[in-house]
Amino acid sequence: VSSTMSFARTGQLSPISNGVVDAPCATADSTASDSSPSQSPPVAAMTHSSSSTSTEAWAMEYVGTEEAAEMAYDSGSHDLGWDQSSYEVLAVPKLEPMDDDDDFHMDDLKEAPLTPVPTTESPILDHPKAKRPRGRPRKHPLTPSTAANKITKGRSKTGCLTCRKRKKKCDEAKPRCMNCEKNAVVCEGYPEKQIWKSGRERAEEERLKSHSLPPITMQPLFHGLETLEDMIFWKHYNEHLSTVLTVEGEHKNAFKDMMIPIAVKHQGLMHSILSLSSKHIDFETPYGINLLKNNAGTTLEALQERSIHHHDQARLKFYDDVEFTNDEPSPDYKLLVPARYGQMLCFLLEALAEGNPRGEHRLHLSAYQNLISSSPPDDSAFLSFIAEFFQYHIFADELLHLSTNSTRHPPPRKPHSALLIHPPRLLGVADGLLEYLPQITAIRNTIRANIVAQVDPVVDYVSLYRAAEIDAAIREWTPHWPPGDSRDRVGLLYKHMMWIYLVRTIYPPSSTSPSPSTTSSAVSLPLIQTPPRPNRAAPSVVNTPPRSASTSCASSPRVFSSGSGRPNIQPNPTPRKNISSPRADSPPAIRQPPQHDPRITLAVDESLAILDTFKPSDPSQTLLLLPCLVIGAACFSPSQQERVRVATRTSRGYTGLRNSDLVLEVLEEVWRLMDVGDWAAVWNWPGVAGRLGLDFIPA
After folding, report:
1. Band of the pLDDT at 215, cuts 50, 70, 90?
2. 310 to each of 241, 340, 365, how far by Cα in Å?
3. Which residue has the higher pLDDT, 272 or 26?
4. Under a CB-based contact definition with an 8 Å cutoff, are residues 625 and 617 in contact?
5. What is the DSSP letter of 114?
6. Coil vs helix vs strand at 680
7. How open is the CA angle 371-372-376, to the nearest 5 degrees?
8. Fewer CB within a 10 Å sphere, N or C end of the chain?
9. For every residue of 97-140, which 3-state class applies, written as one string?
10. Which InterPro entries does the entry link to (predicted)?
11. Least confidently predicted of 117-126, 345-354, 566-575
């Protein structure tokens, strides 16, 4: 560092750097240097320090540090070996002339570039010199087409198993090699590819296997609940379906309190419950769509396949139990009997849930009637539950089921159900109201047979007398439900339903062919007429539509006429025009049947007012489908029909039973017949359902 700075000030290197040892040259130069004033300061400095040692002078002038002085002292004492008398000669440095360039700066100095080092290896190292072949070299050597060092390929281990066994070369074609095809041998395929693992990895896998837990299989808690689809059906039955099948609350539900304990012990009943639950789910509704969305582990096809499985297993177990109990008594007889009733109940509900129109429900109703008379269940509570539910649907089935012996009246039913059914859950069975429903149906079947046979009068004395007894019983009936129970209002609705069904039954349309004038007047809309007094004779000719004219008081007990007592006949009126209307802009009159009793309209309006009070989430929606059909068949006003239509759809939305769609289909056809004036078909609305090919339970 000191030599560099000295060079910057004086333009020459330090004498230590140059290694000056030639004394005569130094003396000659010192003489010449006396004439140069620019070199006087260092010379004076050197002569001024003649009294001190040479080491100290060099240290003060050129080095300036104690470490450099010590180094100079050591080198001067041992290496150079001069004495003090010769110091004056050696101390004078050789001065060389400087260039005339006074603009020299240290910043102008630049570092010399480094010598480039080759980055690539020597070709001699990469490609060793090939050995000279033996023999005389060719004048024109041949260029080898392949590399000099030929790579040998080992045996392939990826061939098919057949070629490896036969030790033949395999072309490794997939799925079968062509070598096996050519030799007409069976190609066993190719071995599975295995990932190579080191010994340490294999040892680690063996260690993990030895320390891993043994595999276990979780068996289902209940027989039949084996898959995710089964758990979906099971949850739907417990949380939704069992609630809509009865009017009972959540804390007291026979479909869970009685059916589930039996199903846990009996596989057939468990399959029946799961099959019923699967048939009840409608996957096109928002509920069904969310059900699939929340259970991503299954699909609609898997649910349908599992539903068929439970349906088949339920029937198979049922028939096996029937054959088993017929052969010999069994200690499990007490379990098999209630399980059999439970399965028949599920089969009946399946027909309602699917909306089966082929009358398959009647097979299960007949089986119940045969079994209950011979082998009733021992549990009185279960007997009450089963008897009420089946009997309710037996009564409802009488509405559409046309008895083959329509002229026979069934024997009077004893109200013994009230003693067997306690506590009541549904309506009309324990209190005896629905017992009059098949009796009214029997009267209707008798009148229908008289109309077909052209018997006059079509409503005979026996039918009228029996209708009077039923009317008195209906009027005396009162519901007995605790205050606040919605079934109290349903009871009033059922009472109106029974009366409307009775009145519409004993007042059928006439079957005598009308006269031409009567036919023309029947096309027009009938007028609103007032009923005659009871002690007043009725005229024989009335305003009727086609196929309606009668002179019998038995077939039409209440005959309507105009205020003057003369028949209300309009001579050749224009069709679809109300001549009696004084104003042209008045709304069209409501089309009503001839001899219409306004009391029916009043009863229908009151019934619809009660029907509108039930909320869509009311448990009583389970009981409203039956009155919707009976009351809807007596709705002649479009506004009344729309209210019944809404009530039917609301009941369908609550229960989810597709037989509600069949009820609405029958009502739509009956209302269409009202528009065309076919009152005979409107009166015989069970026959309308038969012509549509619908045989179902409207409940």
Report:
1. confident
2. 17, 16, 22
3. 272
4. no
5. P
6. helix
7. 110
8. N
9. CCCCCCCCCHHHCCCCCCCCCCCCCCHHHHCCCCCCCCCCCCCC
10. Fun_TF, Zn2-C6_fun-type_DNA-bd_sf, Zn2Cys6_DnaBD
11. 566-575
On the question of pLDDT at 680 being above 80, the answer is yes
DSSP state at residue 108: G
Q: Scanning the structure block, which residue is given the tokens 């001579």?
A: 571
575-589 in b/e burial notation, b at 16+ Cβ within 10 A?
eeebeeeeeeeeeee
Cα-trace Rg, the chain = 58
Q: How many residues would you count in the chain?
A: 699
Residue 85 tokens, joined: 């008398």
- pLDDT tens figures, 223-256: 888 999 999 999 999 999 999 998 876 677 899 9
Q: What is the rounded distance in angstroms from the CA atom of residue 307 to the CA atom of residue 518?
A: 59
Q: What one-letter code names the amino acid at 296?
A: A
Helix (H) or strand (E) holding 473: helix 461-476
- Partnered with residue 538 across adjacent β-strands are none
Separation of first and last alpha carbons in the chain: 116
Q: Of 619, 635, 333, give the one whose Cα is nearest residue 490.
A: 619
Q: How far is residue 306's CA from residue 183's CA, in Å, rounded to a whole number? A: 48
- Residue 84, CA distances (Å) to 53, 380, 612 in order: 8, 144, 139
54-81 exposure pattern, b = at least 16 Cβ within 10 A, e = fewer: bbebbbebbbeeeebbeebbeebeeeee
Cα 225 off chain centre by = 19
232 CB burial (10 A radius; 0-12, 13-18, 19+): buried
Among residues 408, 462, 460, 412, the alpha carbon closest in space to that of 436 is found at 412
DSSP state of 483: T
Cα(284)–Cα(338) distance, integer angstroms:
35
| CA–CA gap between residue 191 and residue 157 (Å, rounded) | 9
Q: Cα separation of 1 and 416, whole Å?
A: 131
